[in-house]
Amino acid sequence: MPRACRWILFSLLLTACGAGAKTYELSYQVSIDPQQGKADVSITLAGEELPSRLSIHFDPERHSDFSGSEGLSVEGDTATWHPQGAKDTLHYRFTVSHLKDTDSYDALMTGDWAVLRSDHLIPPIAVKAGKGLRSRATLDFDLPDGWSSAMPYESLDPAANRYRLSDPGRRFIRPKGWLILGAIASRQDEIADVEVRVAAPRDQDVRLQDALAFINWTLPYLKEIFPGFPPRMLVVSAGDPMWRGGLSAPNSQFMHADRPLVSGNRTSSLIHEMVHIGTSIHGTERSDWIVEGIAEYYAVEILRRSGGISERRFEETLDELAEWGEESPGLFTGDSSGPTTARAVGVMRAVDREISRSTGGKANLDQVATALANEGGKVTVANFIAIAERVAGGSLQSLDPIKRQLAGE
């Protein structure tokens, strides 16, 4: 089922169930302590019927000091919680700052702001609950004076930093995606039916309006390929010592303040990460090149379609990527980056052109990307080949080397 339809179906199901639905209140409260670099987190469940067990799989280097009722036990990297009564609360502390490599961070708290992912703040939770029992979730921040927040969720009270969480299809709702807290500046607009917000620390010279204008220019073209694009997107930006690149997450992305909207090689990290948000797919050790190849191909293709680069510059860019891709030992290399992603772009280029020829211009790689996004989740090499050849109406010679490699393994 297309992702766009899932949102609609989920809303209809909630409406149809009405008062007869079995729900409980799930409340996340997060208190920020910049001096300690910590967040104090409370998770409260309240209702006539609650889940019988929650297994919280945490990172011992970042999550600590678990406490709660007698129904809580902690062993290794798992906290097991059996909620007691009609209302129960679990507490723990979270260390915000986290190094991605030796000298840069993918999460950071300073005395004035914090940038992190909410799905790291609230770790994965496996839930055992009665049939049909589902949560209704909110998240509240208790922030220092002068601080505010931005998340890719509906704001219930901006002054109180309170959000209504949603995750269609999930019975237990956990926050996901990037967030920013502190003395922040932001710009927002509705673009192609998507509520877009870009935000950064106020003391940094981040061109928020430029980024918003660039998204306004390019997102409508992406929506044509990925109509199930989330209804909200948050772009968080900050400078050093944050990691000097782009990182996507559900409904959101981080982009280092120094990253250009269009790079010197005529690709766009911002579009690349928006493609990841639009597809919501992830790969395996053998298929990560598909995920990254599609994102990087459209990082160039969307610039061409929107008039950002000429046809000649488009072809030059793909030729340069093909040359760089020759440095890659192969596509099945695990995490796809650098030359492997460039090589994957060459595959996408060839598949696009062969589909267009075989269908008389009636189809191209767009239909493949749309189908993968509609399915969501984990993509496999075999599934990618099957979808591409279904769109083409027959076998694709451009995929023969990959099929031979699959057959030989």
UniProtKB/TrEMBL annotation:
Domain of life: Bacteria
Signal peptide positions on this chain: 1-21
Keywords carried by this UniProt record: Signal
Name used for this protein in its record: Peptidase M61 catalytic domain-containing protein
